[in-house]
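== Protein entry: sequence and backbone fold ==
=== Local backbone shapes as whole numbers ===
==== Amino acids and backbone structure tokens ====
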Amino acid sequence: MRIVGFLNLFVLLLLTACATRPPSFSTSLKGPALTPETFITSDGWPLPLHQWQPGKQAEAVIVALHGFNDYGRFIEQPAHYFNKAGIAVYSYDQRGFGASPGRGRWAGTKTYANDLATFVDLLRQRHPDTPLYVLGESMGGAVTAVAAVNGLPNVDGLILAAPAVWARWTMPWYQRSLLWLGSHVAPWMKLTRKGLEITPSDNIEMLRALSQDPLVIKATRIDAIAGLTNLMDSALASAPKLNTPTLLLYGEKDEIVPKEPTLAFIRQAKPNILKTAWYDEGYHMLLRDLQGERYWRDILAWIRQPHGPLPSGADNHLPELNSSKIMTMKEITE
């Protein structure tokens, strides 16, 4: 009887999984458009808009794209630093995150990339002659890379901070299997970080504030994790196709995105396109680490002189690229 009961539950879960649909939103808004507080997408989704202006005509513009379960105000502290250098900063809550519609639901790789391209086009109309850069953190970095290879012609450079490039083929087989099973059997099930010994940053005060922030998602649907993995597949595959000048920042102490897939991304990218800054003391949430200003300074230096050395010297600190430590696809998956 227990076996029969389990089978009935399993069938019910499968039926539920088959019935899963992507998030929908009914709106009378017409986009694309920018209002003082909203980015209206091409299909009418109102996404919260955040902006920090330098108080004078901007010398450059940064579009900042947040990570998974985060939202647009992640860039607030770095934005004030960039404002002092004459740089305007814009960000928005991506679909399903922050205060946007469809909270907790994954919208799809193509949708996130299209939203970014639309947002960049709107800002280019507002700042037609100003250098424009896209800065993506973690998931935001993955969206940035995918959007760039699919067409971001109005962008002068990309900044990928700990980009989410942990593609399936770089994961252990059992992790891939569990992800497939969960996404097909119980996509609605939510997981938390409870019990995980992971340190996203050395900035404990910041982490505590995020844990109390109602706009930060604390429990994640399995189908959203599967969607993120699809995005990471595409992001890693985008590396050799990148043709926009790119700065990649990564911390040796990153416990979220492993070193091996990041090195695989670096190895596959064109050397004349990608500059890498590798920080011994950096964590995953680099821009909000205790040493965050060090990384902001490197970003600013790269924007001003993309072919010049970084103030931190982190662009000369990547011995793995010149050794046999870079793993092959076969070695990573074994």
